[in-house]
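Consider the tokenized backbone below.
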């Protein structure tokens, strides 16, 4: 069954495969985006216990990766989890399951090493429930409800150890309400509203502890170019200059120079409006400037980029192959190896040894089958 609601929901990925519109014009930067050289290599490794997309992947304090929930296809959701051991490059099923099935939820590593899991789809409505994974026991423990049902939201650890939860979709509308989870008493408290309602937006923690929120959907077919910053000292939001284009289902990451790379996503045409473009946000000027183009159009991403020790950024999801962004030249360079499918809503996680783990995702599918996720996984190394 296909559900008709705000495009910010994950389930809406299954309803728009055709269109006659060409993609929106991409913003361009450096002319050298067609790179003859490659940077690093991706290699396929073992397989997950389930084919997953719109799952979460969280690096634990012992270096292992918790991979929780997700879906194989529309209606086939998971409440189980895998744990990846980088020492053996192998996956093992976690001993226990989540309290419910979850798709398009968030997972945040807390200061005590546990993982907060919030919201997502379980059935016909986004969830209010939350739970905590304890790596010592591999148990998932319910911790009450958020104040709003949420899917397509963001969850960001603040410097004070609390978790900021912004936006998302509640089953009827995109949200502007913001709440904070306090791990000291396992409580969720509404604190403010964003300047704009947002779902499937991107959130990035800046070097000074503030949070940059970019793009997202505000109502069906209406996508933002706007961005705003949350200040945890005042629990308030302030708008920045807008991005060059509207974006949602995109991604972002903090660079070593304290600027933010924002890349990919799409406009209101979804599949037919995917971007190769990227831009850089400067917190000092609160402005965005174009970066070089990616080698591949990418969208339906969340946490698909990791910052390497040398300051470059590895991007491994939302497209048919991986690439590396070099902030010194503002260019994207292909890696060696391909996935064979676009890996929409895959996860990319940095390992302790500077490798990156790429897990799951789904391809374009067909009108008859719809998208089907993969249980494949890859390792990136320079």
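A designed sequence for it:
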């Amino acid at each position: 069954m296909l559900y008709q609601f705000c495009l910010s929901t994950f389930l809406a990925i299954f309803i728009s495969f055709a269109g006659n519109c060409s993609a929106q014009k991409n913003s361009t930067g450096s002319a050298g985006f067609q790179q003859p050289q490659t940077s690093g290599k991706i290699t396929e490794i073992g397989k997950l216990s389930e084919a997953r997309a719109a799952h979460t992947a969280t690096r634990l304090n012992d270096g292992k990766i918790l991979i929780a929930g997700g879906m194989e296809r529309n209606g086939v959701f998971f409440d189980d989890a895998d744990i990846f051991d980088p020492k053996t490059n192998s996956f093992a099923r976690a001993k226990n399951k989540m309290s419910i099935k979850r798709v398009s939820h968030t997972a945040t590593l807390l200061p005590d090493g546990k993982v907060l899991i919030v919201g997502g789809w379980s059935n016909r409505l986004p969830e209010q429930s939350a739970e905590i994974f304890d790596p010592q026991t591999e148990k998932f423990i319910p911790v009450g409800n958020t104040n709003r049902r949420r899917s397509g939201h963001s969850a960001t650890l603040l410097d004070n150890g609390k978790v900021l939860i912004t936006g998302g979709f509640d089953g009827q509308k995109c949200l502007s309400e913001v709440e904070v989870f306090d791990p000291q008493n396992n409580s969720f408290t509404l604190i403010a509203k964003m300047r704009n309602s947002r779902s499937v937006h991107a959130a990035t923690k800046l070097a000074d502890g503030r949070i940059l929120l970019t793009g997202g959907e505000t109502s069906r077919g209406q996508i933002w170019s706007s961005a705003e910053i949350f200040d945890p000292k005042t629990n308030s939001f302030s708008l920045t200059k807008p991005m060059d284009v509207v974006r949602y289902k995109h991604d972002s990451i903090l660079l070593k120079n304290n600027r933010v790379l924002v890349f990919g996503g799409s406009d209101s045409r979804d599949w037919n409006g995917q971007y190769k473009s990227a831009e850089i946000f400067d917190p000092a000027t609160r402005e965005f400037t174009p970066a070089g183009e990616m080698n591949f159009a990418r969208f339906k991403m969340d946490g698909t980029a990791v910052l390497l020790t040398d300051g470059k950024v590895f991007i491994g999801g939302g497209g048919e192959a991986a690439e590396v962004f070099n902030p010194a030249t503002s260019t994207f360079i292909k890696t060696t190896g391909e996935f064979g499918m676009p890996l929409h809503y895959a996860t990319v996680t940095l390992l302790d040894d500077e490798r990156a783990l790429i897990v799951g995702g789904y391809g374009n599918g067909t009108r008859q089958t719809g998208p089907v996720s993969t249980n494949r996984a890859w390792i990136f190394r320079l």
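The domain at 28-381 is CATH 2.120.10.80 (Neuraminidase).
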